[in-house]
Amino acid sequence: MKKAAILVVDDDQDLLTAVRILLKPKVGHVQVEPNPENLIGHLDKMAYDLVLLDMNFKSTINTGNEGLFWLSRIKEKYPAIRVIMITAYGAVDLAVKSLKQGASDFVVKPWVNEQLLTTISSTLSENKNQEKKLKNDFLSGNGAPDIIGQSVIMDELQYKLEKIAPTDANILILGENGTGKDLIAQAIQKRSLRSHEVYVKVDVGSLTESLFESELFGYKKGAFTDAREDRQGRFEAAHGGTLFLDEIGNISLQQQAKLLTVLQNRYVTPLGSHQMIPVDIRLITATNATLKVLADENRFRKDLIYRINTVEIQVPPLRQRGQDVQLLAEYFLGLYAKKYNKRIDGFESDALKKLFAYHFPGNVRELQYSIERAVIMADEVSITGNDIFFSPIEQLPEETPLDVSISGSNLEELERKAIKAAIERFNGNISKAAKELGLTRAALYRRLEKYDI
Predict the structure, then answer these.
(1) Which of 114, 178, 348, 430 is the most exposed place for a label (fewest CB within 10 A)?
(2) Nearest-angstrom CA–CA distance, 55 and 87
(3) Rounded to two decimals, what is the model's pTM?
(4) Could you report how far apart the first and last alpha carbons of the chain are, in Å?
């Protein structure tokens, strides 16, 4: 209870005062609220472990029982939050009904303080055990969930995964950088009929024109200067299993044409060979570009989009996932505390406030690195707000000019630095980087190969 954050919602000011006095020395943070219409606003601003919710209010909501209405609102938006209902003796039947609708327990007023504290402690213990099981399942890979998240938007994503994973449909995963598209691809493979077969990942966005064919389709000895032996391509290596092509939105139109031919015909021809090798794969692709951007035929072939996009999955940014921020932070805390051999039990309330107030432009990846740094910096047995720092890399405004030092550099070195800075600024998006540099995509690819970037 020492670190718990509790929200108490009741329109009886005397009760709120009494509960605040009782709980303040026992828990990490207690917030009281007389107006239930402000309830969701409190939950949006901070991660609460528990809500004490009255069954009856004199509010503008007229449902016959406001408590059940607000319970449903809490569970709809934040299903992981535990709720204890506060009820009068004559409304115990309604309190029992609330248990069927997701409440963890109920207390009858007037109560004995010791009994209330016992009920709160017991409910918080159940919540902690559930979080611990979630982390253990994630680490061990036993059953599901292999994706951490209990927000409504992640529940919808999980439901979609369960529907499409057992099929052999081609899947396009969309989402910002750092949202976990790679993890989603692995989750699909684990739940598919090919789960016991090979899983091959290729970052196609990083392949130059010259490497694209040899890497994906393979080559025969002597096909080009450095081809000293036969090499199997990634398509052939993934035969019978799943092939994941990451950053598919960054490949050139010429590369797209070659990829489309293989996907249509389901065979590859290695460089230096005329032999057609059949391939049986389940294809998953991912990109940080939107469907609207991909639909631009100057950038991406529509026939290829339809080929790779039987079903698309949109991975939400972390800023839309509500209390998943705390679940993920707790998971990363356990991971890095073990890695760095430090005994850290959890987060102080100021640390959680800091995490929930931040917009995480770098998404889950940025949260992960922030928690790792916090674990390294922490001197106490819990993470405080002062331990948490956010990366200045992610906070650069969009209009920040490229900072390329020319001191002591020749023209080629200057060009190399400018290209590298543009690629990093736009997170590997070739089209945006080329536009920034005043080059065509093809010209930029030639320079990437020239400077081995």
Answers:
(1) 114
(2) 6
(3) 0.60
(4) 52
